[in-house]
Amino acid sequence: MDQSPAPMPESARELPDGSDLGTALGTDFFDLDELLTERERELRDGVRRWCDEEVVARAAEFWEAARFPRELLGAYAATRVAGASIEGYGCAGVSPLAEGMMCAELARGDGSVATLNAVHSGLAMTSVQVLGSEEQRERWLPAMARLELLGAVALTEPTHGSDVVSLETTARRDGDGWVLDGAKRWIGNGSVCDLAVVWARDDDGNVGGFVVEAPQEADGWDAQVIEGKVGNRGVWQAHIRLDGVRVPAGNRLAGARTFEDTNRVLARSRQTVAWEALGHAVAAYEGALTYARRREQFGRPLAHNQLVQDDLARMVTLITSMQLMCTRMSQLEEQGRCTLEHAAMAKLHTTTAAREVVATARDLLGGNGILLDHHVGRHFADLEAVYTYEGSRTVQSLLVGRAVTGVSAFT
Length: 411
Description:
By secondary structure, this protein is of the alpha+beta class. The protein has 11 helices and 9 strands. 49% of the residues lie in helices and 14% in strands. The longest helix is centred in the last third of the chain and has 36 residues, at 259-294. The N and C termini lie far apart (56 Å). Pfam families: Acyl-CoA_dh_1 (PF00441), Acyl-CoA_dh_M (PF02770), Acyl-CoA_dh_N (PF02771). Residues 152-245 form the Acyl-CoA oxidase/dehydrogenase middle domain.
């Protein structure tokens, strides 16, 4: 009986029944691929090839060592997924749908690389693009697209996660600049970034985004990597202390004045996370299907059993529902009609559905399901982070609940 690790989804290896593994794992039941232009499809496929050929081969190494995948940044930049839907500034300028599919491919490859992208592109580049002045966009976005500047966004605080609106970090005006004081926690890329957007309250109580350049060299910036994680181990989150960090006046994002401005960024970044969850689910499903067709028990492959087929059918049906919701969400974004509540519902559904898919896949692999060699266990663990960050399931549920009832139940 073959106990070898599950082969990569794009391999042309033949299964015992003579079928081609590379064509057996398709999950696009509703032909959503047809909605992309030829160029968008080429970019999406480029991300897929890079993940299959380079990222997955090293993902277990980075995961087990809890090591930041710095050597992958150059190739990541070459995929054009960073800021993919931004027009100009050296970005690809594709549709939000194509960008979403590219982000899903990153998560299908590795959750840590996908999270790195979600922070750098979905949060940091989006903050500059949505809230920055034209001068600020020209100053930072091209270098961020080339990964000459790696971005981070410092919003969450040690005592303010879901109630981040209670922001305590302060920005005090001092001469021709600002002075930042406070603490931030769970800041992706925070210990390795070249540029960080720090959210703080100014002297008037207004919320602003303040860009700290070369933060690791800044006086008063102390970023410590959070250790002991059981998921997304290949990307670093930091606990940051800000003690008199100085920022030039021109580094306050021009369009960041209230927490509603922050929500404009979160509405975009949660779309990225919804696509991420889909990518994890697809990876787990592909691993489970490959295993079911290769692993023999009681004289035949697992895929011949009714209960196994029932599990696989349920998994691919959930994946299809996630694809359809993410697709419509991205179409609304392209039309300028995607709201915070749309993004909340998408994140609520995809992370919940993906959690069921990866758990079913891990169970189907039996004991092998917890081995890094088979990839499914890594996605199982990493999805737990996706399930929580950018707002937990309950936070998303309350946003949708407020939309349908007109009543806020947050407090």
